[in-house]
User: Fold these one by one.
Assistant:
Number 1:
Amino acid sequence: MMDLTQVPIWLRGRLKRDLTGAGRHAFSFLLGLLAALVLDYVLYRIGLPSKPFIYVAF
Amino acid sequence: MSTPEKPTGPARLMSPLGFALGMAAGLALLAWKGREVAAHDWHAGFTRFHPMISPEAMYEPTVDEMCSIVRARCRPDQVLVVIGGNSILLGVGQPADKMWTRQLQDNLGDRYAVVNLAFRGAAPNDAGAVVAEALRNEFPRQIYVANEIPFQSGSPIGIETYRFALLDAYFKGRLLPWKPRDRAISSYLRATDYRDFGVMDLEVGAKLDSWLYFHNFWNWISYNYHFTFGTPLMPHAPEAFWPRSRFEDKENDFDSIPFETRFTPQVVATDLNIARSYTAAFYRQNRDKSWTREADALDSFLRSARAEFPDPLKRRTLILVGRNNPYYTKQLEPEIQARDELAIADTLGALESLGYGAVGYGRDFSEEDFGDRSHLTTSGGAKLAAIVASKLEAMAGELNYIKP
């Protein structure tokens, strides 16, 4: 972990914001990958005669 | 200048752009993997589509997957023989090591490669035919074999159970233009009641799959690693979730099932009725007990048989027309037996007039050659293999596939 005490005070806030933002983007990207996997599977199951759980909603 | 508001709630954790990029990247990655895996054959030791790798157990092989099965078994210098059709050609009642297509391969020798892509209850132009057509340029020296009963041919788009393969190839642009089929597909899709999810899914699924290749990917997972849900054929854990590669081709052997078990009084009564009416709809009897074909029987058959396969493929398509088990036919009156023979001769003649190769089988078969009314035992399979091999060699000569 970066030691923020070594960073000038005027830069600390910005760096913290940037690091938080990068983490947020990375987390969202991973969540997007997971959503793609789920969507891919649902599309596969919808094409089969045995329907996935999502059909219960209809 | 106003400072942007800090996101609150879930938005603090989520970046819509990151999520969208992740989803796009994920779908692209899965599509690439789906294409990549199906370029290689994952069915080591493939014999035929036994129930656990068939739609009966919710496993629908893709056209790419079936093409890879063929590629792994046919060298470019061999004549490709694709077997389609129904359970009779699948070899129901014949164990894998004695099934008729093994005997056909032995009869034909190394110059030919026989691949059995038949499915239970399939029409002549279902999945196997679709694969053969998709491979027409890659394996130009090919013969496709299927079976029909007298005066009956199917729709240009086959039957519902195996339409997934047709639409898979259609939306991926792997079929020849063929007006009767293209019209039938359009009308099938136009007639879709969008509340009928079964049909809508086929269309939307096949269209999306031509971009995303998810069927290839999940079939690959299902076959090699983990099946993902219980099916009526295999409902309970842990077997339901085993990879489908763990299930072997364990077809019953008619020869090991006693005659009395296969031919119970109930089965015999039902099958005798079917045998009696096998060709009844197509002829009327004259006073002298001879038969006259019904006026529209031939025209109607010619119309549907003409539409069944694209014209350029007819010459390399062999249609087999079978007889019933003599256990039943011997119980029929001589004039009904004569009517069946007439119908088979007329059907073969009609198919040949359209350009198909056609051959009948079953005339010299004994009761031991049949496991029931129509399916063959190992000995019947050997007789069928001999008839088909001889016809295939003749066709390969006529098509200039093989120099005499």
Number 2:
Amino acid sequence: MKYIDEFRDGDLAQKIAANIAVEVNQRRSYHLMEFCGGHTHAISRYGIVDLLPDNVRMIHGPGCPVCVLPVGRIEYAIQLAQIPHLILCSYGDMLRIPTANGTSLQKIKAQGADVRIVYSCADAVSIAQRNPERPVVFLAIGFETTTPPTAVAIKQAHALGLTNFSVFCNHVLTPSAISHILQSPEVRQLGLMSLDGFIGPAHVSTVIGSRPYEYFAEEFQKPVVIAGFEPLDVMQAILMLIRQLNEGRAEVENEFTRAVLPEGNIKAQLLVAEVFELRRTFEWRGLGLVPYSALKIKSCYADFDAEQRFQIPMTSIADNKACECGAILRGVKQPQDCKIFGTVCTPENPIGSCMVSSEGACAAYYSYGRFRDAYPATKVS
Amino acid sequence: MHSGKVKRGYTRPLDLKNGHIEMNHGSGGRAMTQLIDQLFLAAFDNDFLRQRNDQACFSCTSGRMVIATDSHVITPLFFPGGNIGSLSVHGTINDVVMSGARPHYLAASFILEEGFPLADLKRIVDAMAQAAQAAGVPIITGDTKVVERGSGDGVFITTTGIGMVPEGIHISGENAKPGDKILLSGTMGDHGIAVMSLRDNLSFHTHIESDSASLHDLVATMIAAVPDIHVLRDPTRGGVATALNEIAHQSAVGMMLYEKKLPVRQQVSAACEFLGLDPLYVANEGKLIALCAPDDADQLLTAMRLHPLGNQAAIIGEVIEDSHCFVQMETRFGGKRVVDWLSGEQLPRIC
């Protein structure tokens, strides 16, 4: 397929792998975090770990929107969906996330709640148009990539004069999450976690640009290489990070120049600024309360804010005690470090959110990589 | 109309153009008989059905018989390359012939929803009759039930097939042996993507047609070339990945696939790309997977490629020893990964 196959070329991958093998310093290790679930997925799906030397370790970051949503907010969505006549529209992955008492949007859907899977928030707006007598709520999740479309949907609903449409807003911000990880005691004080550099987000960066990352590179002296989601992008970014670390540089570099500009997508940023404002604080699964890390709908669009319209109390609910999603999302633990990984918690019966989304570290590891535990010797190099 | 002008013994025929299924079409009375006579019997016509018994009685030769049954609940009922009728014939014939059998007879059972247009039912029944006739497998008995509006989704069809396994053929999912080659008869995912493209919440346009087809003749050709085929399986729901995982577990072996060798149409891979699907998990209705000894593989591949339903056949991998029964794949990229069972539901109701 044109413009796709070029970025999945096996021969080129072998060449980059050979360069990485030559350039790594055998006396040190390289701990690189891919922030995005899209990168985690590509690494697992294409078996990129097999092409890396042993001293290059990939740490999976928290950039999976389904994974970072705390149980309390899922519980909130479940309560919304149980309001008589209400239609809750959601992206598919959200349906399977279990709450503390084992229920999920999928389960209440089976019991009769009207929960509909949509592929875009525009679909939710048209459902609202077709059902004027019923309240329709769009469960909005995601990082900066999915925020502009939600802004468009709200503006569209406003222009259409829809009084039955609202958004349960859970949009979160990438830079605050990266700062939070870098400032965490595990990284800064306790030395529990080595973190040498970041593969920066692909799609998020098309919206916010490369500038927001300059702060981390400067303040925390960690190199960032923004990379596309294709496997060759990831390989090239790893090589670029290794070069920066070898040369003692900590800069923001852009591997994804075919889509990311330094200033990002100004039009999308303006749309977001028009409809959303910063929340003072927001709870993330795994990271806890992170200041100024999420968006809420501005008061001028309050009619479209499900949290204001339905006034359900928001509660904070602790994760299942056995589940290590929190530590995995912070990069402190690997999926296979979790006692219930692959036994109690599987993609069929997920306990934690990282096992639900295909971008979650546990699901990616379980679906694509678990032969490595069974046969550690199969690892190349 | 003046009653005097109506011929003696006249009954108004079924309105196949504008009529609808009504509850009395399933009540066992005159309306049901009329539906059977004017629609089903007219289309499926054969000696067995003409006897109008509740069962079909046929003689059989000695040997191993095969029976398979399959329910069809696809939505939408009509899709590029077929409809639920042709699919219900192909699906069951394929289940029968994956044992190496020659298919002989089919039984068909219909659950119809009150209000379903008779014109649509006629299209479906005609497609079934055509598919059955093309395969030379008559539908020799059947049943019809009607459920109230809202209790069904237009029409559900269950078909059951019977066949005979030729002497000396022993094909089963538990026969895979380390070293066996894995062959696939053609491109992956055509059916699933053709059906997906019609869903109202996924508006995309494609020229892909379902691959729905009866594989009896391809199988007969393959057996003639290589009688010692170890395993045959049609990768329907869950796609090639799921079928291979089933075989790996039945035979307690592992598998290694080569991503480079997997045949996928460009339109299918493009659709999968933007829907976030993997063609390995998308349904097929006219493809088969065959496992055979490495020495037989080239001969089997040649035979498959000479057949119109196998002209894009490829050797996609091999069976390896593995107590964990993992299906693995060497990626185009040069790494390895697990090709796991399908988890959750990739597409709703596609067969």
Number 3:
Amino acid sequence: MWISVIVIGVGTFLTRLSFIGFFGEREMPGWMELPLRYVAPAVLGAIVLPAIVMPNGAVELLPTINPRFLAGVIAALVAYKWRNVSLVVAVGMGSLWLLDWLL
Amino acid sequence: MRDADIRRSAFADGLRAMAPLLLAIVPFGLVLGVTAAGSVVGSGLGIASSQIIFAGAAQLVTVQLFDDHAAAVIVVVTALVVNIRHLMYSAALAPAFRDFPRRSRLLLPYLLTDQAFALSILQFEKNDDPAYRRWFFFGAGMGLWVPWQLATIAGIVVGAQIPESVGLEFAIPLVFLVLLIPVIRTRPGLAAALAGGLLAVVANGVPFHLGLVIGAVVGVGTGVALEKAGEP
């Protein structure tokens, strides 16, 4: 098991180093610039949406069954206006607990 | 500003940016510690995996698979596929890292996580000074690394006392939601986020947590296609 964990650790480090290491001294090809601009929105969208609309593995938007969707929408509105991580986490968690308690 | 001042304030900015994310990270680390301690992996390797692998989802999957008596090859391949998303982060950050000294370029990627990526890519747009960027990344990275080690150890030694019904894991998407909004600046950007999210939902059942990677790839493709089609 130790050997497996070490192999995973080395492999993980290599994926993290990959492009940073390879293009450290070489020019990055010009065509890569355009797709790289969309990595952040695409990845973050892919992290956020499933966690909000399907926390239990099936898409469910009704607040009585999945309060996280409504809590997420409220948090998104707050995030759009203020962009403060602590505030949004507080509002989102607060909304979730309130909905859980109300419904 | 003097060099040392820039470094200190950049490092502090990185730590500060990471701080609110700990609300979601610490409970995850506790759960990982408890799970590892109660599995065939055990306490020693459980703690060591937080330094050797330093990637929560992959560490958890490693512990679970070993506990299910999966073959070592399966465990290694699964954990590495779970971590394949780091390729995208590395590519997106590579242009900024080009301006770093060689040693930083080779060592700092060890600290590259979902959280460090999202915070850095946003901060790098606001500040293009290589020294600032380097120390901000280092600050954000250590701001996650140290609490992650402590949380894993605490989970192993003390055990987790957080009831699941509190739903603290919901803090994770909330944090990424805040980081998502400012990176959507154009219509193609919005389309990339929506397409990435929808595909990740559709591909949710795909093994190895690959739904995230599939969503991200389709999201990037959508953004690129729309920009090429001339959307503002």
Number 4:
Amino acid sequence: MKTKTRSRLAALVCLLVLAAALFYATRVLTPKRHDYGSTWGQFLKEEKNSTDVMFFGSSLVYCDVAPAAIWTESGLRSYVMAGAEQTVPMTYYYLREALKTQSPKAVFVEATGMIYDRYTNYTQVNIGYMPWGGNRLKASLTEAEDGLLPGFFFPLWFYHSRWNELTADDWRVGLTGYRADDLAGYTFLHEYRSMSGPKTRRFTPDADNWARNLEFLKKIASLCADRGIQVVFYLAPSMGRLPQETVDSLKDAVAGMDGARFLDCNGIYDSFGIDASRDYFDTLHFNVSGAEKFSRVMADWITENLGLSPSPDADAALWDKRAAYLRAQAAQPLTPRKETAE
Amino acid sequence: MRFQSLLYMLFLAASALVHARLSPRLRTPFLLALSWFFYALWEPRFLALLLAVTAVSFALARAMRARPERKKRFLVLGLVFTLGMLFVFKYLGFFTAGLSSLLAACGFAPLSLPKLLLPAGISFFSFAVSGYLIDVYRGTAEPERNFIDYALFVSFFPAVLSGPIERANHLLPQLRARRAPDGDDLRAGSLRFLLGLTKKLLIADRLAILVNAAYAAPETFTGAQLLLAILCYSVQIYCDFSAYTDMAVGSARLLGVRLFENFDAPYSSRSVKEFWRRWHISLSFWFRDYLYFPLGGSRKGKLRTYVNLMIVFAVSGLWHGAAWTFIVWGLLNGAYQVFGALTLPARRSLRASLRIREDSRLTAVWQTLVTFLLTTAAWVFFRADSLPQALLVLRRVVTLAGGVFPLRFQALGMNRPALIFTALSVLTLAALDRYGQDRLCLRLENTAWRRWAFCAGLVLLTLIFGAYGPGYNAQDFVYFKF
């Protein structure tokens, strides 16, 4: 009996040590995510219920919306919780997850995701960095290709082979955790490319995909309505624009959703003061100069159309620091991209 | 369902759990059903072939007992059927291609045959069945009365795909006993399986990256790089096949069955002859008992002994694969032994004249090193896609083509940390081989803390440093294709 107890105790202790070792190994070996979306580790370091506005969607959000610029312009606290090629269903799960720790008054969803395929090149990143829980589980089971599933349940499956390329940052963040993001989810781009003029974006329409995305758009609207959050589905301004009939379909669909608004930023493009020769990183994305301009206009639009005003609880010192950081980064001269042709 | 897959581990765990709780009379049918299911997962249509070989050999062995005066005829019939299947599926294409070339050279139209898929494990189960028929013929084994026990002997899932090649006298009594595994079996079986898994994912599959890169385009690598690759292949194939055996033996042990051991630290051998007593033991002994001895073994003079050796190793090469590379590999191993026997007196006299004792450490290290290098050179033929490729690799290695420095081993797809870690793993394995895997298992079985800590360490090492996941192509065991 004594031997059996000892054996069980040995098993328990060794398995616990193994589990702890695997937990920390996973944290260290997983590539660190400080920008380009899916920055959940940093987002979770934000003080709870400390954002007024949240932005969701694809790279058109994390490259174009600079929360620090919105703060400077309006005194509103915002955060970008986007992901590369984030599909509409993924946006829904991101929103649900974000609402666990934040209670924004308004949510902006960049709606270009309506034309994305169900599986994109970034599913692994978009799901893999989500916090553990029901939303991650549902996203893993419904939004990921089968081949990726093992990695969502056991991230070492994706990342264990990084053991021979670990950096000091991997160890620091892996062992001590992420810090809050000075850019609040925005990704800083410093190069520019000259643009000649807008073009229509080409894609293969897929009726089933559109219908599924629309279903999730409704879920987003419904979730926001339930929580008393104003929701705006918008199309980011860019030089690669959706065909007008697609924009119209989207507008009509949103019009039928209770309390949801639609904003095609390309329709008010002239008000941004964008310099097509200096403010773009590429056809779709602004660099920091363009993002600052766009964010200031968005801040004004929010104040005027959604009636939001700065919160008296805002940590002004933190946001002023963030604004100063963005200004310092933006003050650095822009550099031309190597491939200058559009 | 690969042994190293999570699915197989779940399958094995569930099988062991249910098997241990079944009543004894249900255990064998249960294991048989599992084995057929396991085999059918690889290629369902070949299950019929396995069943046919099982049924025919069972009936013929029974007939040998019932009609002893015609037992030779039954034996021949059984061997023709069993080995005939092997010939048709594995060698017909090879011989037809050879014949076609000959016919074409003589101006005749070449033969054409549809390419046949090789049934999984056919080389292994056909040898197990042939051995059984010969044993029954010789009277060294009783014909099995119970078809279910016999069918399980042929298709027992841990061994059906890549051995060890079992003998009726060893496996059948265990299956008849219908024993449930005890605590020792479960501990030893799990540990053995885990050791095999670690060896496969930590060493064999990691080395496979380097070796595959080298053999994909040997002309683009320097002699030094190819030397590293061929040395690595020696380690890879050992780790790969012995890992398979560990997992097979471990799996069987979890079901209360002990399979043959296939390896006994082969690279510590001091001669090629000794190497073949320690490498793929179940196959070496099969050839010894069923081919070498019937040919006369070493009882008919030196010349005949050497001829017999060459025959056995040529057949052994052919058994591994229907290609000239395997035949040359086999012949080379035979030639090493013939040459070793012929030069033994001279080598002994040389050592005596240099006052180096036969049992000295220097002699042992020298002989072990030479044996390793000889087998490594032979493995080049085993691994190469063709004879010209094997010769190209050897030529580049021997002439150190492209110079030695800079080494640039990274060009082989493995960066420096990975190379160092793999080297450390190989050294650990060598130490483990020297210490004795059985001895280690025994020590660990007796101490719960040590055992659990060891297992947890292996799991952690494998999950962090093992070759698995989306960045790797899961490597089948090398011997699966035989």
